[in-house]
Amino acid sequence: MRARYLLYICLVLAAAVSPESASGETEYFAVFVEGKKVGHAIRSRVVTDGKVTSAERVSIQLSRANVPVSISTTETCIETTDGNPLGFEVVQDLGIATMKVVGTVSEEGIVGVTTTTMGVERKGEFEWPSGAVMAEGLRLLQLKQGLKEGTSYTAKIFSPAILQALETEIHIGPKQNIDLLGRVVALTEVTTTYSMPGAGEIVSTSYVDEDLRVQKDITPIAGMQMEIIACAKEFALGENDVFEVIDKLFLSSPRLLDDIGSAKSIVYHLSPTKETNLLIPSMDNQSVRPGKDGGVIVTVEPIVAPRGARFPYVGRDKTILEAMKPNRFLQSDSKEIIDLARRAVGDTKDAAEAIRMIESFVAEYIENRGLSVGYASAVEVAVSRVGDCSEYAVLTAAMCRAVGIPAQMVVGVAYVKDFGGLQDSFGGHAWVQTYVGGKWVGLDSAFKSVGLDGYGPGHIALAVGNGEPADFFNLVTTLGQFKIDRVIVNKGR
Fold first, then answer.
1. What percent of the chain has pLDDT over 90?
2. Average pLDDT for residues 294-310, to the nearest whole number?
3. Other residues' Cβ atoms within 10 Å of the Cβ of residue 242
4. What is the set of domains in the chain, with CATH numbers?
């Protein structure tokens, strides 16, 4: 059970609204979650030789079931003094190893990206999103628009951490007296709405000074409130509070579910806890229909993989073909992953048998269910053999892709009778779905590793993707925004 995707995107969004220092100046901020200090941010802006280098480091420490978790990201944007993108660098330390991403933007608008994990480089390229800006480009746009109350405008902000641009709407509010850790300052309110098509919105409220430097930012993430507040260096880098995140990522079940193993399907009645549209995806294993008062009714009925389907996949469906490609988190073309996949499937030619072999293999292969891991890639898991649900999932998905079986990462909530003292709850979870015989079939090697049945009707999917953090934007906008009012178990297995 984990919050890594949420916290990772938390850092991304915090960086997107980062204040801009004067050239050569370093600014320090304290990071709070639910009122507890959990880390710090350090930001700088340097102008040399016609280039602007904006850098930010965010470091967060949390506790998961009394196990410390440290997450840090350093993001550097390089632009011209006119705000045109030249390149970027992101260094992410999310657990087992460090991932470094370096990007260069050509005059033709082609972004060349090199990702390095555990000494292995992976290169790729994509087109720069038309009209997108990074830190300096955003600063210049904000200066142009000014701070007149009622002003509204849009911006497309490129985040190097997720290698994707976020659509934003920015609205200038009134000037207010804001408490900055005991220091009251008159600041202007700026509301920024981040969105991805079909994935919901996140609304961040910032308070800026006359130079448009953010002094305080408040962002609700997965039902929690994250704050970044300007402060003295000594306080920013000082001691953090202990913030236990586990109970923030669990939903109470309205009833004990001791019969999941014999269920054919389970129907869930979900209702929003705030004024929001619940964007729960429909897929082969779950259907979604409108409920009462803005709620939804989700029916989870797992697909059984048909026997006789062969692999590798040879169709032309673009989504399915995308689910076979290697990427920086699912390195299905690496020797480590290919070797493990071959060991797992042996000589079988049946896709249904192969995915079960991979699921069981991963369940046994990971030796240490470590809660201290941030978010490891498949190669890191293959080498370390450490992790929890998302590490099980990335390794399972990468191994399936390595033998030509399309696989996607799925995140959502799953039912557990007891986890860290929490009883009869649905907790944040990650698993896999694979494409076999014309249908997406669920796998859960993490559940399998602790003697459970693996994927089943106790899983509610909130987002699907290829392992990249941007794929799970919907998880951030949905988790913590609903409750489960009613559960109906249908027998029949």
1. 68
2. 95
3. 11
4. 4-244 (2.40.360), 250-491 (3.10.620.30)
